[in-house]
Amino acid sequence: MSAGLGVLTAAVILGAELRLQWAALGGLLGGAFGAVLGIFAAVLVTLIISRTAEPEPTKSFLECAVLVAFAYLGLVLGSKKAADLHLETIGRRVVAGTAAAPVLMASETLKLLDTSVLIDGRIADVCEAQFLDGVLGVPQFVLHELQLVADSGDALKRQRGRRGLDVLERIRKMPGVEVRIIGNGPSQAGDVDHKLIEVARRMGAKIVTNDFNLNKVATVQGLSVLNVNQLANALKPVVLAGEPMRVLILREGKEANQGVAYLDDGTMVVVDGAKRHIHRSVDITVTSVHQTTAGKMIFGRVDDRPESPGTIARQAAAGGRGDGNDRGIYPETEAE
To answer: In this structure, what DSSP letter does residue 260 have?
Structure first.
C-alpha cells in the first residue's frame, strides 16, 4: 500500500514537472496566484468545519480534502485565466512608464525640443551635421501641440504643423541621434512654454528653441538654452568696414537712392546709391556693420572706381579694355 502510494506520488510530481517546463510564464504566474487564493479560501472553510459536531477523524479528512481541492482549483483556473490578465500589455505599460522618465548616463545631457524649433526645421540639419550630441527629448505636450497645428483649419498653420512632424520623423531616423518621448509629468497647468520650463528644471535638461520670449524666460530662471537663431548668427561670415563685396540689388531702400540686397544666409545689405541698379549685380564697399536683435545688417555704397572689378567688366562689355588707352574712355583720340 505504501509502495503504491509512493509510486503514485512520484508519478504525479514528474508529470507536474514536465508540464511546468512547457508552461508559459503567464500561465505559471496565474497558476501560482490562483493556488494562493485557493489555499486562502480553504483555510476559511476549515475554520467552519472545525466548529461542527462531526468526529475528529471526519474533520481532519474534510479539512485535507478541502485544502487539496481548493488549491488545485485555484492552480488550474489561474493558469487558464492568465491570458485575461494581458501580461504583455502590462509589460509594455511598465516600459512606457520607464521611458517617460528616462535614466541618463552621467555623460549624457538631455535636450528638450520646442515646438518652434521643430517647425523651423533647421535643427534637423544641425543634427545631421553631428553638431548636437546627447539625447533629444520631445515632451508629450509638444507632440500634442504639433498635432493641433497640423489639424488646424488654416492652410498655413496646417502646413507648418505637418512640417514639424516631418522634421521630427527625419531626426528620429538619423542613426547617430537618439530621440525619446518624455511624459507630461505631474503638473498639467500652464501653457506649453511653462510646461517645457518645468520639465527642463525637473530633469536638469537644456531647452532647444528659436522662440525669443521662451529663451528670455528660461534664461532668467537659470536654465540652459540652445537658440538656433543665435547659432545661425554666429555662423555668418564676418564682414569688416572697407571690404569689397558683390551683391544683387533686389529692391529700393527706405531712404532716397538706396537699394537693398541679401546675402546667401539672409543678411540684409543696404547700399547707398544703388537705386538705379535694381535687379543688377554691383560691386560695393562695406561702410559699417550693425548687430540688431533681428540679426546682422550691412551698410555699404556702390563702388564706381575705375579699378574695381565691376567697373572693368562693364567697360569690357561696352567694347573697351578698361585701360588708359581705351577709346571708349577717351573718344577724342579717334577725332585726332
So the answer is: E
Please, what is the end-to-end C-alpha distance for the chain in angstroms? Answer: 147
Domain 97-234 has CATH 3.30.70.20: no
CA atoms within 13 A on the CB side of 190: 12
Contact indicator for 235, 129 with CB cutoff of 8 Å: no
Q: Residue 291: which residues within 8 A CB-CB, separation 6 or more?
A: 297
Distances (CA, A) of 47 to 33, 34, 159, 241: 22, 20, 72, 100
- Architecture per CATH, domain 244-317, reads as Beta Barrel (2.40)
Nearest CA among 91, 325, 114 for reference residue 210: 114
Q: Is the pTM of this model over 0.70?
A: no
Q: Compute the Cα dihedral for 168, 200, 101, 151 and give only its sign.
A: negative
- The DSSP result for 114-159, as a single string, is PHHHHHH-HHHHHHHTT---SEEEEEHHHHHHHHHHHT-SSHHHHH
- Tell me the sheet residues that pair with 285: 244, 301
Instruction: State the amino acid at position 93 in one-letter form.
Output: R
Task: Confirm if 192 and 145 have CB atoms less than 8 A apart.
Answer: yes
CA-CA distances (angstroms) from residue 319 to 38, 281, 325?
Answer: 108, 19, 12
How many Cβ atoms are within 10 Å of 124's Cβ, its own excluded?
A: 19
pLDDT of 31: 74
Q: Which ranges of the chain does DSSP label H, i.e. alpha helix? A: 2-22, 25-50, 56-80, 87-100, 115-120, 122-128, 140-150, 155-172, 192-203, 212-220, 228-234, 309-317, 332-335
Where are the domains positioned within the chain? Answer: 25-85, 97-234, 244-317
- In whole angstroms, what is the distance from residue 283 CA to residue 297 CA? 17
> What are the φ and ψ backbone dihedral angles of 324, each rounded to 5 degrees?
-75, -15
- pLDDT, one tens digit per residue, over 280-315 is 999 999 999 887 766 788 999 998 765 555 555 545
